[in-house]
Structures are given as structure tokens and as C-alpha cells.
Design goal:
Helix content: 40-55%
Radius of gyration: 16 Å
Number of strands: 3
Shape: globular
Length: about 110
């Protein structure tokens, strides 16, 4: 019996591609997109750069989002970081790549 992966490796989300998919996937993607947009996550989820997979894995393994307070927490390089979504988004907007953010934080 062969094992078939039901997922694919993605380093960023191509919202345009996903939103063009046909039913019944389209309805699910639209609902997820709307929720991510409401949480101001669309841009960061579609951000493209040359990722350091260990840093990304550590970020997601330690990520906690306080939805009501719109605050995110994570650990990186043994340090704890906490940002509200507005400050985090503004900070990302001043950088060329997410890898620059990682260097700045370490």
C-alpha cells in the first residue's frame, strides 16, 4: 500500500490561486481568506522571501495569538517577543524581507 501525502509544502500563500479554485474548495478558501483578512493576516501569509526553515519552524511552534487583544507572542533564539498586530504589521512594512526582521530581533 502506498502512502499519499494529502498536503504540500508551502512557504507562502498564493491567495490569488486559491481563490480561483472551483467549488467546493472555493467556499472554504473564501471563508478562510475572509477570516484572515479580518485578523490582518493576509499580507504576512502571502509574504515571499528566502526562508530560514529552522527560524520559521521555531516561530510557528511557539506562536500564540490573543485574538481578542490582537496580540501575538512567540519565542525566537531563546528570547520571548510580544507585539500587538498593528505594531507588528507596521514593523514588517518597513523591512525588505522577513529575514531582516529576524536579524533585527536577534
Amino acid at each position: 500500500m502506498s502512502y499519499k501525502h494529502v498536503t504540500i509544502e508551502m512557504k507562502w500563500i498564493d491567495w490569488g490561486y486559491l481563490r480561483r479554485l472551483a467549488s467546493p474548495v472555493k467556499e472554504v478558501v473564501d471563508a478562510v481568506y475572509t477570516r484572515c483578512r479580518d485578523m490582518d493576516l493576509v499580507d504576512i501569509m502571502s509574504f515571499q522571501c528566502h526562508w530560514n526553515e529552522e527560524v520559521v519552524a521555531q516561530f510557528y511552534a511557539t506562536l500564540y495569538i490573543e485574538e481578542n487583544e490582537r496580540v501575538i507572542h512567540w519565542n525566537l533564539g531563546g528570547k520571548r517577543f510580544t507585539y500587538n498586530m498593528a505594531n507588528f504589521s507596521n514593523y514588517l512594512g518597513t523591512l525588505d524581507t522577513l529575514s531582516s526582521l529576524v536579524v533585527a530581533l536577534l
